[in-house]
Design brief:
The protein is α/β, with parallel strands linked by helices and about 220 residues long. Helices cover about 45% and strands about 15% of the residues. It has 2 domains: about 190 residues, NAD(P)-binding Rossmann-like Domain (Rossmann fold); about 30 residues, no CATH class. The N and C termini lie far apart (about 45 Å). About 40% of the residues are buried.
Length: about 220
């Protein structure tokens, strides 16, 4: 692909088949991309694909997804437990591993060799994107793409730029998010990004309201 072109992203590798990973894999496959869903445990990767099938089946039963679209989406998905094979030929690699910096850095160190020209993205909700990017030879090609759960329903994507990020990489992440039907916002690499910091403010205010006797915790939760 031309360096970091959202329109030319046709093949996606998703690393981690948990709740966020299989959700990201689903929306990319529904878009029309071929998707490799990787997990260190093949059974976990296969369960991720099965969960996608279950979500799409529910969509069919509700009349929100056609059976043909479901079948076409599933045909674009493959599960795997070999990282190099999952990343081979990928235009975009999205990491959705557990929130441990050393794990993400190790993964991207391996991805750096397996997909030397791909746009790289981490779905982290809290860790420093710059620190994760330091694990690859060219940190400029790695950005944050923070999706929200459930991925197939939630519209927001935080695209996180660190100091060394290529502007074209950020633009490609924004453009691909839009292709997925999401609403991207661009935020700088800072603790909590935008959404978590806003959530913290709401949480603190809720606690103050309980302490001040404004309302009960249950009634504040109901209001939210």
């Amino acid at each position: 692909m031309t360096r970091f072109s959202a329109e030319q992203i046709r093949s996606v590798a998703v690393l981690g088949a948990g709740t966020m990973g299989h959700g990201i894999a689903q929306v990319a496959a529904q878009l029309g991309c071929t998707v490799a869903l990787y997990d260190v445990d093949l059974a976990a990767a296969e369960r991720g694909v099965s969960k996608i099938r279950a979500t799409l089946d529910k969509g069919v039963s509700l009349g929100k997804v056609t059976a043909d679209d479901r079948d076409a989406t599933m045909a674009r998905l493959r599960a795997g437990a070999v990282l190099a094979a999952a990343c081979e030929g990928a235009d975009l690699v999205v990491e959705a591993a557990p929130e441990r910096l050393e794990l993400k850095a190790k993964l991207f160190g391996e991805v750096d060799r397996a997909a030397p020209h791909a746009l790289l993205a981490s779905n982290t909700s809290s860790l420093s994107i710059g620190s994760i990017a330091a694990a690859v030879a060219d940190p400029s090609r790695l950005v944050g793409m923070h999706f929200f759960n459930p991925v197939h329903l939630m519209k927001l994507v935080e695209v996180v730029r660190h100091e060394r990020a290529d502007a074209a990489a950020v633009a490609a992440a924004v453009g691909f998010s839009e292709r997925l039907g999401k609403t991207p916002i661009v935020v700088s690499d800072s603790p909590g990004f935008a959404s978590s910091r806003l959530g913290l403010v709401l949480g603190l205010e809720a606690m103050r309201m309980v302490e001040s006797g404004v309302a009960s915790a249950a009634d504040i939760d109901t209001a939210m």
